[in-house]
Amino acid sequence: QVRLVESGGGSVQAGGSLRLSCVRSGDPRSGHYVVWVRQAPGKEREGVACINYISDYTRYTDSVKGRFTISPDNAKKTVYLQMNSLEPEDTAMYYCAADFRGGNILTPANYNIWGQGTQVTVST
């Protein structure tokens, strides 16, 4: 079974940058996809970026294209989310998830294993 731990969140002014890390232990039960998901108070969970860390296939939601980059370091069993040009609308708790079970690779409900989350706050 895979366990996930997120880190790298914090508070930053609009236009700034953060890099989030998702470290996994153990081997995945199914597939090699990792997704970054965010949830703001009063809003539904939203998949923002995902990667197959073997093939390097990636996908992003439209609102972060050109600003966020997802990348793997398989020797460290880590997936990163580099976030540039941050906006107040990016403020949320950010989670990573694995053990993809089929369907849309950006849909949070299609993953079985989740980390504890890391908070990102962007001020004006």
Question: Which descriptors apply to this entry?
Answer:
mainly beta; 0% helix; four-stranded antiparallel beta sheet; 124 residues
Write a brief structural summary.
With 124 residues, the chain is an all-beta fold. Helices cover 0% and strands 52% of the residues. A hairpin with a 6-residue loop joins strand 4 and strand 5.
Record the SSE blueprint.
Elements: E1 3-7, E2 10-13, E3 18-25, E4 33-39, E5 46-52, E6 58-60, E7 68-73, E8 78-83, E9 92-100, E10 111-114, E11 118-123
Parallel strand pairs: 2-11
Antiparallel strand pairs: 1-3, 3-8, 4-5, 4-9, 5-6, 7-8, 9-10, 9-11
Please state the average pLDDT score: 95
Count, helices: 0
**Number of extended strands:** 11
Radius of gyration: 13 Å
Parts with pLDDT < 50 across at least 5 consecutive residues: none
Strand content: over 45%
Structural class: mainly beta
Measure the end-to-end span: 41 Å
What is the molecular shape? globular
Mind summarizing the main beta sheet?
A: 7 strands, mixed
Helix fraction, binned, reads under 10%
Oligomer: single chain
What order do the helices and strands follow? EEEEEEEEEEE
Give a description of the structure.
By secondary structure, the protein is an all-beta fold. Helices cover 0% and strands 52% of the residues. The chain has no helices and eleven strands. The strands form two sheets. Strands 2, 4, 5, 6, 9, 10 and 11 form a seven-stranded mixed β-sheet that branches. Strand 7 and strand 8 form a beta hairpin. The chain is globular. The N and C termini lie far apart (41 Å). The mean pLDDT is 95.
